[in-house]
Structures are given as C-alpha cells and as structure tokens.
C-alpha cells in the first residue's frame, strides 16, 4: 500500500473547496496510507495560534483532518526548511506527496517524486505516479 504524505496546504482543501481528500486520493491511486509529518503538525500549530481568524480556523480544521493520518516523526537538519524535509522523506520512503505548493511540486517533479494536487479548484490530479 502506497504512503501519501499530506502537506499542510493540502489539509486545507476540505474547508476551502469542500473536497473529501481521502476518498478523492483513493479514487486516484487505490488504497493508501495517509501520512502527516511531525514538522507539518508543528506548522499547523503555529498557524492555529497566529495569523488571521480565517487562517487559525482553517489550521484547526486541518489538524482535525491530520488525526485521520499516521504521524511520521522526522528531524529537521539545521540547513533544512519544511519543503526540504518533505522532499527528503518522500525520496527516502518512496512516498507520494499531496501538496498545492507550486514551488514544492516543481522540486518534487525534478526529483521524480509523484505528487497529488488540486486541479481547477474542483478535482485532484496525480502527476508522476505509475
């Protein structure tokens, strides 16, 4: 069963676009194991306590979505940023990454990592998955 790492912005989709990310991903690739990295949980915690009311509310709902996922505890190396950790773990563990971050998607594509992203605000699409 393939592992799919959910980025923070992907966990916002259910509230932003009324999409059931779990059933949509399953429709694309079949049964899968949803994963959220510990660094993503930390990012959501920060967003839930700072920023606008809307961002805080979305971050709290994203943390609820994350409860349906397995948590993978990872360490951040001193020179790494959040995206670097996602890329490193995805390559090491041969995972698909679900994200809407265009810069991250480009980095993942350059490193032959499959991605799942929102297309035209209404449906999910997979890229690089065989």
Structural class based on helices, strands and sheet pairing? alpha/beta
General form? globular
CATH architectural arrangement: 3-Layer(aba) Sandwich
Report the order of strands and helices.
EHHHEHHEHEHEE
Q: In whole angstroms, how far apart are the ends?
A: 14 Å
What would CATH call the homologous superfamily?
A: 5'-nuclease
Helix count from the secondary structure assignment: 7
Radius of gyration: 14 Å
Outline the structure in words.
By secondary structure, this protein is α/β, with parallel strands linked by helices. The protein has one domain: 3-Layer(aba) Sandwich (Rossmann fold). Helix content is 50%, strand content 21%. The chain is built from seven helices and six strands, in the order βαααβααβαβαββ. The protein has helices spanning 8-11, 13-17, 21-29, 38-49, 53-66, 82-93, 102-110; strands at residues 2-6, 32-37, 70-72, 96-98, 115-119, 123-127. The protein has a six-stranded mixed β-sheet with strand order 3-2-1-4-5-6, sandwiched between helices. The protein starts with a strand and ends with a strand.
């Amino acid at each position: 069963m393939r592992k799919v790492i959910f980025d923070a912005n992907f966990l916002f989709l259910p509230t932003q676009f009324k999409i059931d990310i779990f059933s949509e991903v399953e429709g694309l690739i079949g049964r899968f194991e949803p994963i959220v990295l510990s660094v993503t949980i930390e990012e959501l915690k920060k967003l839930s306590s700072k920023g606008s009311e809307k961002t805080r509310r979305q971050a709290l709902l994203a943390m609820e979505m994350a409860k349906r996922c397995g948590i993978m505890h990872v360490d951040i190396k001193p020179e790494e940023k959040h995206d670097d950790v996602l890329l490193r773990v995805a390559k090491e563990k041969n995972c698909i990454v679900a994200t809407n971050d265009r810069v991250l998607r480009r980095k993942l594509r350059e490193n032959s990592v499959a991605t799942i992203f929102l297309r035209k605000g209404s449906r999910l699409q997979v890229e690089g998955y065989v």
